[in-house]
Amino acid sequence: xxxxxxxxxxxxxxxxxxxxxxxxxxxxxxxxxxxxxxxxxxxxxxxxxxxxxxxxxxxxxxxxxxxxxxxxxxxxxxxxxxxxxxxxxxxxxxxxxxxxxxxxxxxxxxxxxxxxxxxxxxxxxxxxxxxxxxxxxxxxxxxxxxxxxxxxxxxxxxxxxxxxxxxxxxxxxxxxxxxxxxxxxxxxxxxxxxxxxxxxxxxxxxxxxxxxxxxxxxxxxxxxxxxxxxxxxxxxxxxxxxxxxxxxxxxxxxxxxxxxxxxxxxxxxxxxxxxxxxxxxxxxxxxxxxxxxxxxxxxxxxxxxxxxxxxxxxxxxxxxxxxxxxxxxxxxxxxxxxxxxxxxxxxxxxxxxxxxxxxxx
Length: 361
Ligand code: NAD
Ligand code: DAU
Hints:
7-stranded parallel sheet; 3-stranded mixed sheet; globular; binds nicotinamide-adenine-dinucleotide; binds 2'deoxy-thymidine-5'-diphospho-alpha-D-glucose
């Protein structure tokens, strides 16, 4: 039985991953979720599993070496899946230091504690242990609008935002541990995720929430930046496959062939909301293309991301199973059926964040 230490498990992808893992393995795994519960961490995402005997939650900062090494000492951890990070590009433009701290220093602490717990005297490691570092395609920079240009695992790193620079630094730390200590790890670089439990600072949930409440839909620049969208459950599956079957020391790109311009995404959201909301739902009257508002562009805005998932498909048999049209419909329905979840995460500090980020833009 594997014991997983999952960092950032109360966030968007981490909570979906924990659901996926219990759905697949039931009582045959143990998961310890370590999360600081920043604005992005929400234990409501895990309400239905919190009483499971093979699940536990520890509130801790990944930069806190003492707290993290205690978790390793007290538990027989053989898998680390490292999600915890500051994840929002716009916030990184306002406050880069928070990103350096959590994403770089936090990853350094996680690597150090895992190595101390796992490395034997002769420098080798037990066969079953693995550290999976969850990273992003943004480390590769921006692609031209040429439809044949893709990110491959061999694409040189060229991060532009403080967020992607901090993730690139964390990737390099993992690579350094693999090269120097033969530390048993994999890196996954994934494209844009969407699905349930995503915090409404990110494009898709922000647009759904604003459209339902009749607020402006702020489109950065000309709205033609392209992202490669992946349903979050497909990402969870990829991470599990890399843990199970990935060759040690390898990087796998995750995503593929779901490229959409931001403005297309917004039109799809509006069309789907109109189709799915019943006629007597008062929110339906709010849904209108007139809400679309072009605003000042994001600084250093990457134009296009697109993953070539050839390696993970060929070596591990993974491919993005969920068609975008199905995934986006599921996601939109989840949000309008979980109005309370949205109300809870948008109360408190969210309004201030929103005003600071968008007012006068
Ligand atoms: P998120 O912001 O929704 O969640 C991050 C989680 O980390 C939160 O629960 C937060 O409380 C926790 N956290 C933050 N700082 C911490 C700290 N110092 N100590 C402990 N916990 C801390 O992020 P997400 O979108 O779920 O992304 C998860 C990971 O996947 C990140 O590493 C991100 O870079 C990567 N990623 C995200 C996407 C995407 O589209 N969202 C795509 C590719 C890769
Ligand atoms: O590519 C993977 C990355 O995807 C992850 O590593 C990041 O953690 C994740 O946040 C995401 O980054 P993006 O910057 O691509 O996602 P975001 O949802 O912030 O923006 C998607 C696109 O939509 C981007 O081109 C900016 C644009 N946008 C975003 C917001 C929030 C708008 O036009 N208006 C908005 O209000």
